[in-house]
Specification:
The protein is mainly alpha-helical and 495 residues long. It is built from 19 helices and no strands. It has a domain of 237 residues. Helix content is 85%, strand content 0%. Helix 17 runs antiparallel to helix 18. The relative contact order is 0.09.
């Protein structure tokens, strides 16, 4: 890695991490307040229509972004490559817009049609900003993207809450994609534009983009289907009210995943790629990364499961209690899903991304069967169970298949955190049995948190205290340890 690339990488990770630290609490507060101010049905309508748009949009994206980011002979000429990408995307995105405008007007009605059309049009213009965004990603220049995301999120939070307080209408949700589109276009094309759009035709580049993109299309479709098919099924068969409960259960349950996966996923692929020819070191890096995800994930998800009733009543309000069991079940998804990213990074780094497709097909099949068998019978609890079965099967398959490339022990990964989790939950249940106060949700939440957290961390340190201490010593003694951290902080302060 050249010095310039290293500096750009450090700046990019710094900006992304800094913005995420600000936006995580901001978005959480926004989600809580909107849940208290808006009708449950509105969240269902928004989630259902958004999922249709995201899933259909993947087909028309055609993996072109992957083709551009991949370094090849056809993308050496960056100006030509970015123009070809913009040209192809404009063609595909326009076909997507026209096709689904017709779909929306012919098949939808009422609030569903309004939300779908607004999201579709906003999504179309927002997709026009993807090309310059990819240019910045390819150049490892994330500062503008991070600042733009910060401005968009702060602006949408203020405006959405203002509309919600003023009118309690669904426009409090719809304003977010509109503002994101307007600010995105301004930030990419009008305020110090980084690139001027050009339409060109270059036959060899066109063939490359279509060929490479098509090879990535299947993975993209499977990923999008896994992320969205539960919302679409719930919208069609259970209705917007139940989807409103389910979408909020999912939204709040994935906060542990957001906290853990975002900073780790930004660096783990590069680390694994560098170690792909050294099985021992790659195995060690995978274990350290995945073990951290599992132990912190079990702690956060277990804590939320313990205080779930109080969390819902205190923050969201009594009317959201029908989402309780789905929320608890979705925490299983939240604590296992980060492992998927870690395993996928290994497959990509060693050059076998097709393994990911096999796992995704199995996961999608399990989810569809689960929705058809459990969804009708248990409603959103059945949907949540289907998602959990999907992630459990995917995790097991991933860890089995990845053993062809790394050495990993299921027992070492899961034994200590599972024992700690069971102990912590058992102590929290004991607290609720002995000291539960129906008149004080706050007291119950604090006591349950202390008993669970104390039990979990105590058992974990009893079982793995020595390993944790040695890992800390290793991190602080290596060349990339305290001295590097010191140098990084000085560089960050100066910049």
């Amino acid at each position: 890695m050249t010095s310039d690339l290293a500096q750009r990488s450090i700046r990019s990770v710094t900006w992304i991490s800094f913005v995420n630290m600000i936006l995580l609490p901001v978005n959480f507060i926004q989600s809580v307040l909107l849940a208290r101010l808006l009708a449950v049905e509105y969240f269902g309508v928004y989630a259902g229509m958004s999922s249709i748009i995201v899933l259909t949009g993947v087909f028309f994206e055609f993996g072109l972004g992957n083709a551009y980011l991949h370094r090849s002979q056809e993308t050496i000429n960056e100006d030509q490559a970015i123009s070809v990408l913009f040209t192809l995307r404009l063609i595909f995105d326009t076909l997507w817009l026209l096709s689904f405008l017709i779909f929306g007007f012919l098949t939808l009605s009422g609030l569903n049609r309004l939300v779908f059309i607004v999201l579709l049009v906003a999504g179309y213009f927002n997709r026009l900003t993807i090309t310059p965004r990819l240019l910045l990603v390819r150049q490892v220049q994330h500062r503008r993207l991070a600042i733009l995301d910060l401005i968009i999120n702060i602006s949408t939070t203020v405006l959405s809450l203002f509309i919600a307080f003023l009118s309690h209408s669904i426009w409090a949700l719809l304003i977010s994609p509109i503002i994101a589109t307007i600010f995105g276009i301004m930030g990419m094309y009008f305020i110090k534009p980084i690139w001027k759009p050009k339409l060109i035709y270059a036959e060899s580049a066109f063939r490359y983009f279509m060929s490479f993109g098509s090879r990535n299309l299947a993975n993209n479709i499977f990923d999008a289907a896994i992320e969205n098919i539960d919302n679409i099924w719930t919208s069609i068969f259970l209705g917007n009210q139940w989807l409103g409960y389910y979408s909020r259960a999912f939204k709040f349950a994935i906060y542990p995943r957001i906290i853990l996966s975002t900073p780790i996923s930004s660096v783990v692929l590069g680390t694994f790629a560098e170690l792909k020819f050294d099985r021992r070191r790659l195995s060690r890096a995978f274990f350290q990364t995945t073990a951290l995800l599992i132990r912190t994930g079990f702690l956060l998800a277990g804590w939320l499961a313990v205080i779930a009733p109080q969390f819902i009543r205190l923050l969201l309000g009594e009317r959201w209690m029908p989402m309780l069991e789905a929320f608890r079940l979705m925490l299983i998804f939240s604590l296992l899903d980060p492992i998927k990213s870690s395993v996928s990074s290994v497959f990509v780094s060693v050059g076998v991304p097709e393994k990911i497709s096999i796992i995704r097909i199995a996961q999608l099949s399990v989810m569809i069967i689960g929705l058809l068998t459990l969804g009708f019978r248990f409603q959103i609890i059945g949907v949540a169970l289907s998602v959990d079965l999907m992630i459990v099967i995917g995790t097991v398959l991933s860890l089995i298949m990845v053993r062809s490339y790394i050495d990993v022990s299921f027992l070492k990964l899961f034994a200590a955190p599972v024992i700690s989790l069971v102990t912590g939950i058992g102590l929290a249940v004991l607290f609720n049995t002995l000291f539960y106060s129906p008149r004080s949700d706050l007291w119950t939440a604090i006591g349950g948190s202390l008993f669970f957290g104390g039990g979990y961390l105590t058992v974990l340190f009893i079982l793995e205290g020595k390993q944790i201490y040695l890992a800390f010593r290793e991190i602080t003694s290596r060349s990339y340890g305290l001295k590097k951290v010191d140098d990084f902080l000085r560089h960050f302060i100066k910049s």
